[in-house]
Amino acid sequence: MSGSENKDINEVNSKWLDAHYDPVANLYTFSSCVALADLNGDGESKLVVGDLGSGASNMKLKVFKGTSLMTENTLLDLPTGLVAFHMDQNEPRTPAIAVASGPFIYVYKNLRPYFKFTLPPLEVNELEQEVWSQAREDKIDPMSLKEMLEGIRNKAQVPLSVRSLKFLMLEHQDMESFVNMHKQQPIRRQTVITCIGTLKKNMADEDAVSCLVIGTENMEIYVLDPEAFTILSKISLPSTPAFMDVTGQFDVEFRITVACRNGNIYILRRDSKKPKYCIELSSHAVGLVRVNKNIVVGCTQETLHGCTQKGKKLWTTYLPASIVTMGLMDHKSRGFQAVLVGLANSEVHMYRDKNLVNIIKTQDVITSICFGKYGREDGSLIMTTKGGGLIIKILKRTAVFDEKDTTPGPPVAQSVKLNVPKKTKLYVDQTMRERENAVAMHRAFQMDLYRLRLTAARAYVKALESNLTPMSSSASEPLKMNAVVQGLGPSFKLTLNIQNTSVCRPSMNLAISFWYDEKLYSLKTSFFKIPLLVPGLNYPIDTFVECLSDKGISDVIKVFVLQIGRSNPLLTAHINMPVSEGMALC
Amino acid sequence: MAEEEEAVAAARETSLQLPVSTDYKRPRSKKVQELPILERRNWLIHLHYIQKDYETCKAIIKEQLQEAQGTCEYAVYVQALIFRLEGKIQESLELFQTCAILNPQSSDNLKQVARSLFLLGKHKAAIEVYNDAAKLNQDWEICHNLGVCYMYLKDFKNASEQLNYALQLNKHDITFIMLGKMHMLEGDTDKAIEVYKKAVEFSPENTELLTTLGLLYLKLGIYQKAFEHLGNALTYDPSNYKAILAAGSMMQTHGDFDVAMTKYRVAAYSVPESPPLWNNIGMCFFGKKKYVAAISCLKRANYLAPFDWKILYNLGLVHLTMQQYASAFHFLSAAINLQPKMGELYVLLAVALTNLEDIENAKRSYEQAVSLELFNPLVNLNYAILLYNQGDKKGALQQYQEMERRVNKIKESSNNTEFDPEMIEMAQKMGAALQVGENLVWTKPAKDMKSKQRNTSSSKPLTLQQPLGSNQALGQAMSSAAGYSKSIQLSTGGSRQKPPSLPLEPDVCTDANTGESSFTPEVKDK
User: Fold this and answer.
1) Of A27, A94, A410, B172, which alpha carbon lies 20 to 30 A from B468's?
2) Residue B104: its chain A contacts at CB < 8 A?
3) Does A415 touch chain B (CB under 8 A)?
């Protein structure tokens, strides 16, 4: 990105200052894995990023301060989500970091590993357990084990464990060793965390103690106690949660809004074990943000919907490109809230309700957005790009976002002139001529048309009569022929493909002869007999043609298919010979 | 600061010896038993899928499937979804079937199997699978899709049942649209309108619903409401192509050519290669008497859609106006070849032939027109004039009487019929010439008998510009006989343009808009 281009972008978005842009920060992350927190209690916010590394290895928990990387902790598995939260009342009030990864939550305090929480194991199918215990006692062989497990899989309400599923995929010869290797261990079923959020315990303060709220792959939501990490509440969902927003206080009243993989949004409340409201979207949600009391959902169909807390749809906005990520812009000191939407066309749109108030053009597609206090600056916008870059922008103190709707007004295209094809003077002249001589023109045309039709009809009749066509229509010998000329010259290979198109009658006593200008061409064999033609099969017949002229001229060679004992040919093909290029070159 | 550094250093140290690290490491280490959780990367697959980053998504799926030896249901599921997006429907179907084997309890897998079957056009098989899925879990999606399947199988009763049930379960715009479409297929426009009305109430900003409702009203001839809904659609989406074309054609009907043109400019920007659009623009120019521009635009439309007879009709008409009879003849005969069942085309052809002094063929063309067009008195009037000019008084009288009969019939069927003053005047002249006396047909002598009669001189037929009669015409041509009353008022003595084609899908109404044309060729030696 050159300096001048940067400047252009700046001028367009005069509301933001470019604080930092590092295109090679090497961050692979999502909005759920980015947080801003004052980790050291020194009044300076740090940026905490859960970096997915290469997607398989090199996962890191990175902490940025200012424009530089402050610390880096290795993570053992892909981070699913990351939150900063206060887990106790201790002074100084420094938040802990919780990183969700696989079935675990790693809690860091002062950036040191502090606690590991493991999701409770899932219920194991009793029949499955029974079968495996039999296997342990060698009561059944692997084959019958397989059969029984298959039976369980097809009927049971509780799905099989990983071990059984893996076993069912094995080849026959590997089964025995697999069973021997695993049969001694107890069967366990684990699930993984798909999203994580925080919920204030009993106070609404900024730095009040918060519970962790986690969504899991097996369609459940857990609320965890912040100190003891026991499960305070468990709610089942109809589908796997993908995005989550939590508001309220656990001891008073709370709402958890969950966008699920089945394309629905469920709204959960305290004291209800089932979702209270459901919003059926027509496509998957890509992001979920709560602004005040309303929910804003971005969908894969390039739409943004606004809904109330009770699931009633308020508005829909159509976006120019598909959404990649969404974030909330909550500028507390100004009391300004908006939704930031990162689009696939490398733009970030800012919406207040359904009104577009600002567009930020970025250098790359944005994969994560986080707005808040960074360092000592309240209005900081942190974004990471698809290419791994890190962008930090600061909201100008003078920036004001217009309340008014920016979209309407006639589209630009309305003032674009229509591209009406122009007519030339010749056209006008011809028009005049037609006006004056319409009758004569019409008559001449009709006359010529009749002549043309007559000539065409005559030629057609002649061709039919003298069997000049390459298709024989006679009932006794229905034949089809086509010819291919290969080579550059002076020698050509002439291939005739003859086919008997009758249903069951073979053709016999046929011969082929050629007619050509003997000064121009010579044929090796200009007459040969055709073998019996079986109906439907294609008979290629080759011959070689030598071009005798070096003047670069060509002529027609006529092919006749004859029946012995008849003077009229059955069919005729005219082959337009190509110019002999070989001779011309010599 | 120092403290902080310490903390950092400490963190680095400890991070290497996380207490969890040893037993967390998956099977490859000393303990074999801990198999990796199959679903551990599902969230990542899902995230990349909804971000439409399909390449990365496929790479992760591949890795995951290798690790899980193909048993990870969700990975297979998303792979199948991506295949379907890429158009590999058969492959996607196979993968969804694999999913259904891995997890036979999930109705979602069955739904997707059915969806793929549906996309492959195997509606019956899809219905069966949907029914299986419904046994596991009844929801809106299943009912909606069942309804759509039945619709394609032309089983409208079941279709409407399922779609209505889907609406009961949950209201979705798409269900409304499908139900409306189904009623249209049934030919029940009123029901379709009911459905769309409800749909617009439910989501008042959906431009597709608004446009469709507007077009339906247009078809029924309820112009006020049609315009209202089309206008609403344009407020929410000022560049909605369908709504622009429909609203534009209504404006043309009322002679607002300039306003219509401004709207068309927007459409021309977004859909520059639309034949109906250029046809309408051409007819706008025609209305503004810019004939050369009209011909240019119509020729472009013709170039884009060479087999659309309406464009050819209009081209013929404009060339008649330009007195380019030889060209007009070609366009009209081309139109007739494509649409041999329309009387108006033969009348136009006859007018062209008359001017080309091919009286025999003109007569034959009129004969054809009279036999095809059973209600329009103008056909007979024109024919009578031709016969009269040829000196065939008897034939002319016969046609004249036939015309009177038709006029009376129209009057009977509705009382507030207004006839075009020019036609009345011409008919009266004809009556006088044939000496049939004071004709009693015209009980309501047209209010303003502006003598529009132009040159009664030689070979110039009166082609006066008529505000595009399109939409009205559109309505009536559909409802045929009874609905004729109104169209007669449209069919003034000018040749009429072909209505602007409406931008609907063909099944909705395009072929409906047959405007009638009428002609008043010159009365020669009178």
Assistant:
1) A410
2) 153-154
3) yes
Instruction: Say whether pLDDT at B514 is over 70.
Output: no
**b/e map of B492-501 (b: 16 or more CB within 10 Å)?**
bbbbbbbbbb
Q: Considering only alpha carbons, which residue of chain B is nearest residue A282?
A: B172
pLDDT of residue A404: 58
Chain B 187-226, residues with CB within 8 Å of chain A CB atoms: 203, 205
Average pLDDT over every residue of B33-52: 83
The residue count for chain B? 526
Whether B323 and A435 lie within 8 Å, measured CB to CB: yes
* Dihedral angle, C-alpha B450, B456, B459, B461, nearest 10 °: 20
Q: In angstroms, rounded to a whole number, what is the distance separating the alpha carbons of residues A343 and A287?
A: 12
pLDDT for residue A433 is more than 60: yes
| Least confident segment among A165-169, A404-408, B195-199 | A404-408
Average pLDDT over residues A189-212: 88
Token pair in block for residue B188? 């029940």
Q: What's the pLDDT score for residue B2?
A: 42
The strand pair at A556-563 and A527-530 is best described as unpaired
Q: Is the pLDDT of residue A539 over 80?
A: yes
Q: Write down the mean pLDDT value for chain A.
A: 84
What distance lies between CA A256 and its chain's CA centroid? 30
Per-domain boundaries in chain A: 126-182, 433-465, 479-585
Residue type, B165: Y
**Distance between CA B328 and CA B332 in Å, rounded?**
6
Whether B42 and A195 lie within 8 Å, measured CB to CB: no
Comparison of pLDDT for B501 and B424, the residue scoring more: B424
Residue with tokens 């930090």: A392
Say if residue B100's pLDDT is above 50. Answer: yes
**Per-residue tokens: A88:** 């106790």
* Distance separating alpha carbons of residues A582 and B110, to the nearest angstrom: 66
ipTM summary value: 0.74
pLDDT tens string B285-320: 999 888 888 999 999 999 999 998 999 999 999 999
For residue B18, give both structure tokens. 């996380």
Domains in chain B, please, with CATH? 337-526 (1.25.40.10)
| Average predicted confidence (pLDDT) for chain B | 75
Q: Which fold does the domain A479-585 belong to in CATH?
A: Immunoglobulin-like (2.60.40)
Residue whose C-alpha is closest to residue A294's, from A352, A214, A372: A352
Burial class of residue B254 in the structure, from the number of CB atoms within 10 Å of its CB (0-12 exposed, 13-18 middle, 19+ buried)? middle
Residue B467 in this model has a pLDDT that exceeds 90 = no
Q: How far is A114 from chain B (nearest CA, A)?
A: 9
pLDDT at residue B1 in the model: 42
B8-13: list long-range contacts, CB under 8 Å, 24+ apart.
B8/A70, B8/A71, B8/A111, B10/A112, B11/A71, B11/A73, B11/A108, B11/A110, B11/A111, B11/A112, B12/A71, B12/A72, B12/A73
| Cβ-based contacts of B265 with chain A (< 8 Å) | 413-418
Rounded to the nearest 10 degrees, the angle between the axes of helix B189-202 and helix B207-220 is 150
Per-residue confidence (pLDDT) for residue B374, from 0 to 100: 81
C-alpha–C-alpha distance, residues A391 and A388, integer Å? 10
Specify which residues A497 forms β-bridges with.
Answer: A482, A540
- Torsion of Cα atoms, A555 then A561 then A564 then A567, to 10°: -60
Asked if residue A340 has pLDDT above 60, the reply is yes
The answer to whether the Cα torsion of B371, B372, B375, B378 is positive or negative is negative
Output B259-267 pairs: Cβ under 8 A, ≥24 positions apart: B260/B284, B261/A418, B262/A414, B263/A414, B263/B234, B264/A418, B265/A413, B265/A414, B265/A415, B265/A416, B265/A417, B265/A418, B266/A410, B266/A411, B266/A413, B266/A414, B266/B238, B266/B239, B267/B239, B267/B241
- Number of residues in chain A: 586
Q: Say which residue, A82 or A474, is predicted with more confidence.
A: A82
Q: Pairing relation of β-strands A377-385 and A60-65? A: unpaired
